[in-house]
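Record type: monomer structure entry
Structure origin: computed from sequence
Chain ID: A
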Amino acid sequence: MKSDITVKYKLSNGKTIAGETPSTALSKWLMHKSNGNFVVSTKNANVSCIMPGPYHAQFITSLLETFERNYSKTPYVDAKLLKKDWYQSGLPSDVFDPDVVNQNKFINSKIGEYEEWCHEVLNWLVEFGDVRDLKFMT
């Protein structure tokens, strides 16, 4: 069963993006900003790789790097959300499963806290970034 879209916004270039949750909406924003060429900085070089999914431990780091590169600033993030071990239990797999929302697992405190942070980041992008006309639908 396909889940309902709960987040929809436009970019400053007019492109409309929609996601099932705040994290998937951010994932689509990140995909758009990277133009399919996702690069991660390592100690010795930049390496092209597959973009991490919204529940992957590297997702927030990737967002923060992209914010810094594009806007020279980043939103606040609680340090625990940057720790890899926080993602080891209580969050779905790397690939987003729409049933997470449909089966009330979204209420899980870790998922709820994580999605709330993603919601705040989307609002931050309205203020400091290129997101316009942000709508959260229930």
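Annotation 1: Residues 100-106 have pLDDT under 50 and may be disordered.
Annotation 2: Residues 109-128 form the longest helix (20 residues).
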